[in-house]
Design a protein that fits this description.
Blueprint: E1 4-10, H1 18-28, E2 32-36, H2 47-52, E3 55-60, E4 68-73, E5 78-82, E6 95-100, E7 103-109, H3 119-141, E8 145-150, H4 175-186, E9 190-191, H5 192-196, E10 222-226, E11 234-239, E12 255-259
Helix pairs in contact: 3-4
Length: about 260
């Protein structure tokens, strides 16, 4: 085993933010990257530029919306699943799973669920149930697994959001969303950031509106979960906030963890 850095980053449009992605990859050099919100069809994915940066890639795109990808430094990830099981009619590109650098990596973009109540919130909760069922199977395999991505869940009012007051009706904070998150964790997953920083205010997303970046009015919705087989290797975890401060940035910042050998 070797030391590894695994990151997740909602890129919010990979074609328009490709320079920012490449600059981050060059500076931070993560070993495995999960990307969300590619917002491009498969044929428009910038494979050549990413390979030139030293990364192999798998991607599951969708025109204008959604889309996920897994990048691995110095190798091409080996795909094990495309799409979350449990709903043959679900056409959203929200889940991709692969083996890379000795790990099984599930990259996910959980539905936002707004407005709620309504069909979009119902879809969010149904998708969450499918994720919980699939995650249990991954745990049962005994393999070292990471489930990384934009979960669209703010776990707590106290440490994971600047102020819940104006978000009380948002799907990200609803009791049902948080209960599903807790049920997922209860399977035995370790929330990397919170495990290493139990009392810290940590944000991974800052809305474009109302100067929320400038005011540090953020939310923590991007998460890295480790299976019990992998958790003992966790050494560091953090957020590359500098990326959010760059021109034409995504509204998310890359979130990462470092695993020991």
């Amino acid at each position: 085993m070797t030391a590894l850095t695994v990151a997740t980053f909602n890129i919010n449009g990979i074609r328009s933010r490709l320079p920012a992605l490449l600059a981050w990859l060059e500076r931070e050099r993560p070993d495995i990257v999960c990307l969300q919100e590619l917002k491009c069809p498969d044929e428009a994915f910038p494979q050549a530029a990413i390979e030139a940066a030293g990364y192999g890639a798998l991607w599951h795109g969708q025109k204008s919306w959604n889309g996920v990808a897994i990048l691995a430094r110095g190798m091409t990830p080996l795909e094990s699943r495309r799409g979350l099981p449990g709903d043959a009619d679900d056409s959203h590109s929200r889940y991709l799973e692969a083996a890379a650098h000795g790990l099984i990596v599930g990259c996910l973009y959980l539905p936002n669920g707004n407005p709620q109540p309504g069909p979009k919130f119902d879809y969010k909760l149904a998708w969450f149930e499918r994720l919980i069922a699939h995650a249990q199977g991954l745990l049962d395999s005994g393999h070292p697994v990471v489930l990384a991505g934009d979960y669209n869940v703010v776990p707590t009012d106290e440490l994971d959001i600047y102020s819940p007051r104006s978000w009380k009706k948002d799907a990200l904070l609803q009791p049902e969303s948080r209960a599903a998150w807790q049920r997922l964790l209860a399977q035995g997953w370790t929330d990397a950031l919170r495990h290493l920083h139990p009392d810290a205010r940590i944000y991974t997303f800052w809305d474009y509106f109302r100067q929320r970046w400038e005011r540090d009015a953020g939310l923590r919705i991007d998460h890295l979960l480790l299976s019990p087989a992998l958790a003992p290797r966790l050494r560091e975890a953090g957020v590359d906030r500098w990326v959010r401060g760059e021109p034409k940035a995504s509204d998310h910042a890359p979130t990462w963890m470092r695993l020991g050998a």
